[in-house]
Amino acid sequence: MARAVRQTEAADSLRYSITGRAPEQGRIRAEGWVGTRPAVGRVRITTLGGAEPGTLELRLVGRHLYSSMSAAGVRESHGRHWLDFGPTAKFRSGGGLRVDMTAMRDEAGHNPVREAAFLTAAKDIHRTGTETVEQTRTTHYTGTVTVAELRRRLRDQDGPGRAGRRRSLDVYAEQGVDELTLDVWLDGRNQVSRQRVRGFGRHGEFDLTVTFHDVGAPVRVRAPATADTVDVRKPAHRPER
Predict the structure, then answer these.
(1) For residue 161, what pLDDT is reported?
(2) What does pTM read for this prediction?
(3) Would you kindly state where each structural domain of the chain is located, as residue ranges?
(4) According to CATH, what is the number of the domain 2-231?
(5) For residue 38, is the peptide bond before it cis, meaning its omega torsion is within 30 degrees of 0?
């Protein structure tokens, strides 16, 4: 299992899709692209329930993080559709506020297969059989593990995925999640084809399934046009009327 996760995580590029439910958001679906040479990422998340339904798109290009704006934001920016948060996670906005975009940068550029590695810490991991995923024969494994045990395991691990896995655990901890139920499907090439993470916290139940597509296929992510972006690091400027 650990070898399969490393192999999939090490791919130069891939596309993935997400379906399921998230606390306080309701049903969501997402599609993402991630590449490492060069480092680029793009994810489009659609929330179908909760208090703020709608679609958000994040792009990571040339180390710059871009985020799409809501209809209200487009109106306030006089027709521009994107925010440019610049090349660093922490900075001061044009209005002098301290901004930390670490979580959004991570969401835009990470490979979600990193969470499949959590299953290797489960003491009850077992094979449930074979299933077809995206017209490919796979082997299905499942198990449960506590967030506390995952944190303990991470202290003894190294590698580029460690920081991202720690941030994932921070999210679960903030939601009051104590235990995760994990399912992973491996294909014949010993790569992760699908994963599912379930849990229950103080804000309700979550159940997210990620399916991986086009592992190793080229990924191209383009930055929005400069004329269509607002640089949040610069003072607001209203065009003359």
Answers:
(1) 61
(2) 0.87
(3) 2-231
(4) 2.50.20.20
(5) yes
